[in-house]
Amino acid sequence: MVVLNHASNVTGIRLPVEEVALITKRHDLLFLVDAAQTAGAYPIDIERDGIDLLAFTGHKSLYGPQGTGGLVIGERIHEKEMIPLKQGGTGSRSEFEEQPDFLPDRFESGTPNGVGIAGLLAGVQFVLERGVEQILQRENSLAEKLIEGLKEIPRLELYGPESQKDRIATLSFNLGRLSPSDVALRLEKEFGIFCRPGLHCAPAAHRTIGTFPEGAVRFGLSFFNTESDIEIAIRAVSQISK
Description:
Distance between the termini: 49 Å
Strand order of the largest sheet: 1-2-3-4
Structural class: alpha/beta
CATH topology of the largest domain: Aspartate Aminotransferase, domain 2
Order of helices and strands: EHEEEHHEEHEHEH
CATH class of the largest domain: Alpha Beta
């Protein structure tokens, strides 16, 4: 099986899912795509894109609570051949010692996070009402504005592609020799801007772009950000740079 991030949570770059799908089909391999960064913010069609398994989290672009997510199982997968790493009770077949062999119970041991799933449903409904294309267009517009502004700041290094057609609305950068943690702290304390500094749970990615071990400062934009937010962020980073 080939496992691929749909987009990087560090550089924001989108990976060539369609091209990799062709390779996996040619070699009769299963294809699992991690859509944690894209589900809800970028169009995904598992049949069109040749995806066998699609994993996603609920708390990012689907606007659900933390601790929610899912696994979409495609037509090529025989679920009875998939053996869970751990098993437990579900309540749907309490008379048996073994995990049920039907979906979704087979992969949902224990008590489900009902409150979290209800919150995820509300987020998904919002995405469906707005439309993924509209959300994508807005996030791209905001990201382009932010990139153009950050590029003008001396000593700022922006990671990932500059063209928005190759990325999502996640941007990481560093300011000269300043520590990412110090930059993030100043953004919060002096300007009220929350961001994520450090290694972003992806040390290998940071080794690849040469930012290990301190990492980088990351801005994550969403549909709810405004043009005013972008202008404030650019001015704040520029002031810290000076």
